[in-house]
Amino acid sequence: MAAPIPPYPEGRNLLKGKTVVVTAAAGTGIGYAAAKRAAEEGATVLISDFHERRLGEAADRIAAEVGCARPATVVCDVTSQDQVDALHAAALTELGRVDVLINNAGLGGEVDVVNMTDEQWFRVLDVTLNSVFRMTRAFLPAMYAQGSGAIVNNASVLGWRAQKGQAHYAAAKAGVMAFTRCSAVEAAEHNVRINAVAPSIAMHAFLAKVTTDELLAELSSKEAFGRPAEVWEVANVMMFLASDLSSYMTGEVLSVSSQRA
Q: Are 229 and 221 contacting, i.e. CB atoms less than 8 angstroms apart?
């Protein structure tokens, strides 16, 4: 089935006047799509990634494609608390305040448990789960102080489902879901909301690079629409959770999938 045309008009302004920080926003994946959609919705955006050249290119593309000011950029390795703290400080300097944080960083890979090394296990958990903890811990105090904010975490349906070769990634994403729920209960006392999306499969260049055509075809065939999601389709749900349209939702994990979660 062909991908649909994006259903949103320009100038919708769900996030008009808001400031948004997005991690892992270089390239053409979900993070980039979320940053671009936030800019389209009227937000002032800061994007981060560990790859400086691709990060700059992403900022240039957003400015050109949306017709907005070039997003601020901060190089950050989310496995380093020092760099996460520096990102937070830079965000407050550049934006004045942070209304929305989108935790998008994640790392996968396919390997069976019996062949998985400690390094592979811990690396995936560090990038995919620990980064969400580090970023949330760094950004929450300022959100608490201002009495508002929204955090959107990128989980995965593999936090619920089983898939061969994905024990480390699935464990990390299940952790993101649990962390989302528990941190949301704490943050609600300060009028800060924390939710997550759980995509099934969203097509982008990096996924195509690290996944075989056979597996992509198999996963796509299980979707009701017979295709992967477009990254902007996941980003649309992130925008809902980031905006006041979801003002009564916190601690929720929304499946972005065309099959049973």
A: no
Catalytic residue among 32, 144, 169, 248: 169
Query: From CA 20, how far away is CA 76, in angstroms rounded?
Result: 16
What count of other Cβ atoms lies within 10 Å of the Cβ of residue 73?
Answer: 21
Domain 19-256 CATH class label: alpha beta
pTM score: 0.91
Q: Is 144 marked active-site?
A: no
- Residue 113 tokens read as 């448990």
Summarize pLDDT for 89-127 with one digit per residue, the tens.
Answer: 999 999 999 999 999 999 999 999 999 999 999 999 999
Give me the residue spans of the domains in the chain: 19-256
Residues 6+ apart with CB under 8 A from 212: none
Rounded to whole angstroms, the Cα distance separating 231 from 36 reads 11
Its sign, for the CA torsion 91, 96, 97, 101, is: negative
